[in-house]
Amino acid sequence: MNKHFLNLGLQPLANNYLRKFSQNQPRYNLNIFFNTKTKLVSISKRIPSKIMFHKNYPYKSSMSKTMIQSFFKLSKEIKKKFKHNYILEIGSNDGALINNFNKKNVIGVEPCSNLALITKKKGYITFNKYWDFKLAQIIKKKYKNIDLIYSANTLTHISDLNDVFKSIDLILSKNGVLIIEDPSLQECIKKTSYDQFYNEHIYIFSCLAVKNIIKKFDLEIFDIKNLSTHGGSLRYYIKKKANKSIKIKPSVKKQLKKETRNGLANFKTYKKFGYLAQKSKHNLLKIFNKLKNDNKKIIGYGATAKATTILNYCDLDNQFIDYFVDTTPDKSNRFIPGKNIKIFKYSKKLLKNIDYIFLGAWNFKQEIFNKEKKYLSKGGKFITHVPYPKII
Ligand code: TMP
Question: Ligand 1 centroid to 140 CA: how many Å?
Answer without folding.
Answer: 35
